[in-house]
Amino acid sequence: MRKHFFIAACGLTLFGASASAGTMHWKVDVQLYRDLAENKGIFKAGATNVPVVYTDGSPEQYLAVVPDFSATNGPFTIVDPQWTATVAHNNTVVTQTFSEVASADRIRYSTAEIRGTSFRYVPGLDFSLGRLDKIATDVNIAPLVSSIDEYKSLTYQASDPLMFRVGSGTQYLVNPDGTTTKLAGAYSFLTAGTLPNSNPGVCDSTKFVWKFDASAGMTDLSPMPISSEAGDSGSPGYVWNAENGRFEVFGVLVGTYGDGRYALQCDLDWANRLQNRFDDHFSVGENTTLHWGAATERVAGATSGAFNYKGAISDAAGNVVFEYQGLESGKKLWKEIDVDKDNWYAYDTGAFAQGKESGMHLVGVEEVYENRNVLFYGGGKTVEINMDADVDLGIGSVTFDARASKDDASGTTAPTTFVLRSEGGHTLDSAGFIVNENVTLVSSLTGAKGTEWRKIGAGTFE
What we know:
By secondary structure, the chain is mainly beta.
C-alpha cells in the first residue's frame, strides 16, 4: 500500500494507507469504539437498542442495530463471497485476512490482480474491487448497495439514516479543548463509530460526504461520532437497509476536504457490471444427466492478456449444451495446505506471489484472472453431473440453484438435487461451492492432495 497521499484537483486529499486513522470523541470511552469494531461485549452483531453511556454523564443514546464487522480488516472489505472493495490508490495487497482480530489462525485470501492499471479492477474513480482466489467462508458479508437510487434513498436523502464506519489506522482522541491525543500507531486495532447525516448538496451518485464536529454533541442519529485521518483509505461505510433487514456497504473512504469533511466513494453501476461479467449461467431444462468434459481449447481474444481455456458440458446423447471457461486441462496450480508453513492459499504462490513480477504481470496470475463462475439452475429436478475429466475452474466458483433460471422471479423454488460423480476418479477444483436454499448437493468426488473444499449457502452439501 502507498506510504503517501495525493492531492486531487477538486481539493480532496486522498488518504494513504498508512499513517493515522480515526479520531474519536472524548465523551465516548475508547474501549466502546474498539468493542463496536470487533463486535464484542454489548455490541454483538445484530444487537438492537444498544445503550451508549457517556463519560461526562450526558444522557445515553442508543444504537438501533449493530453491524457485523467481521468482513473488514480496515482498508479492505469483503462485499461478496468472491470480491473485496477498497480505493484505487491503495496498491494491490495480494494477501489478506479478515475476521478474528489478531488471530493467528485466520484464513488467508489472495486477490487475482495483475499489476498495471489496465489489468486491475478499477473503474476510473478512486474505487476498486479485488477478486478473491476462493470464496469467503469465515465472515458475515454486508453486500454493496444494489443500485444508485437505493444508495441515495438510504444515505443522504434519508431523514434518519443509520450509518457506521470502521477503520484501523493510527488512533486519536479529540479532547474537550479541541486538541487531540494520539492513542496508538497504525494498524494497532480497529475502531468503529457512527456517521451523521450529510449535506445533500455535496453528495452525488458516487460520493458521500459528512462532517465531524466534536462540538456538536451527541445525537440519536450519531451517538458514537468518528472522523477519519490519513491512513484510513478504503475503510467501509455501512448503512442499514430496513426493507432488506440488513446492513449494506455504500462506499469506501477516499479522503478529506481539509475542513472537517470526509468522503466515501463507490461506483455501484461499474461494480455490478464487473461482478456479473464473470458469471456464466446454465439452466439444465430437461437435461437431467450431464457430462462435464476437459478444458482443452484456448479462448481467443482475451483483452486482459489472460489465456483461459474452455471446455464443454454435454447431455446424455453427447450434445454440447453448455461451455465453461477455466484452467487448461492438466494444469495444476493447487499447493498442499500446510499451516506450519503459513501457506494456506487455495493456489500455489507461483500464481499469487507478491513482488515476483515479469514485466507488469504477477507471475502466473494471467492464468486465473479471467476464470469464470459456473451457475447451475435445476428447477426442482434431480440432476446428475458426471465428471468425464479433471476440471479446474481456477478462481471460478460453482453455484447450485433451485430456480429454473437466473431470471426466474416467481419467488418459489422446489427442492432440487445435484449429484456430482465420476467413474474414473476425476476431480472438480474451484474457488468453492455455493449451494443455495432448497438445494441438496451430493458428491462422491474426491479432491487432489492439499486442495480445499469450501461451501457457503443455505443448501445442504453431502
